[in-house]
Amino acid sequence: MVKSEYKEIIYLDQVELTSALAQLQGGLKESLTATDSNTKATTEGDSIGGKMDGKLDTIIAKAALGANWNMSNQKQNSESVSQAMNIVFKDYQLERLLSELGDDLAELDDFPEEGSFVLAQGEFKMLDFKSIGTLVSGNTLKNLMRKIPDADDSQKTSWNKPAEEGFKLLGSLAELGIKMLPDTMMVLLPGATVYAQNSNFRLSSGQIGPLLASEREINILGVVESYAGASKMDMTTLSEGFSKGDFSNVGSFVSSLSENLLTALGVIKYGNQLIKPIAIYFKNN
């Protein structure tokens, strides 16, 4: 018996996913779960309303608290079921989009045009400036490392002046990264840099840690927004314009500074595809 392929989805941008399917398939019907919930709620309301009719209205009204409590419970249950159905539907939408794109889905080696759908696959790294900043800020890490013996000399610790300077530099980089890329985690692949919105991850920052040791290839469905090193992002050109009083491109300053800094540090490679992800997942057979 052949087992179906299972996708461990760790990131899903529902807005982008729904938008892509709606445009490619001519619209989506998403009222199924809402209709299911509303129908059940209306049925329960009519049932209780029927008991309120007649000469015993006053007596029934005094017992309304109990009736309302039961109705609220039933409504909440139906909403919970609908939510579970909706999550399954979202995951299935990913399969529909992959199927719809088919052969039109580009790969990294195809060097697709800007705006193209791409499926990036390969070894990966993840960079979360917020997690780094949280770890190295303050004196907690410093105080702890001062108590841990060095592996080569039990009489000394690994914490020394160069180590302290290194962590301070790392803290400064993290602080700048948080300001340049707020609410964003970077996923790095050979030939691609992915800018993922934190709120779309299905894992906490702590749960992401074990993934970094995984030897599985990651799969990223997304849109190629641009390529690193584009002339519009050239910091020298922007700076020359500013010095002459031309601030027409001031809106590109933050993005240009971010890209140039991360390129100088080797985080981004010149020519990398800069991708906005729709889904990030692993394939498990």
> Which H/E pattern describes the elements?
EHHHHEEEHHHEEHEHHE
Number of discrete helical segments: 10
Determine the mean pLDDT. Answer: 79
Provide the structure class: alpha+beta
Strand content: 15-25%
Overall geometric form: globular
Helical coverage, percent range: 40-55%
What is the C-alpha radius of gyration, as a whole number of Å? 27 Å
Q: Any overview of this molecule?
A:
The structure is a single chain. 47% of the residues lie in helices and 18% in strands. With 285 residues, it is an alpha+beta fold. Strands 1, 2, 3, 4, 5, 6, 7 and 8 form an 8-stranded mixed β-sheet that branches. The radius of gyration is 27 Å and the shape is globular. Pfam families: DUF6414. InterPro entries: DUF6414.
Question: What key phrases describe this protein's structure?
Answer:
285 residues; alpha+beta; eight-stranded mixed beta sheet; 10 helices; 8 strands; 18% strand; globular
SSE blueprint:
Blueprint: E1 6-12, H1 14-24, H2 32-51, H3 57-62, H4 64-101, E2 106-107, E3 117-122, E4 125-127, H5 129-136, H6 140-145, H7 161-180, E5 184-189, E6 192-197, H8 205-208, E7 218-227, H9 235-243, H10 253-264, E8 273-284
Parallel strand pairs: 2-3, 6-8
Antiparallel strand pairs: 1-8, 3-7, 4-5, 5-6, 7-8
Please give a quick description of this structure:
The chain has 285 residues and is an alpha+beta fold. The protein contains ten helices and eight strands. The chain is 47% helix and 18% strand.
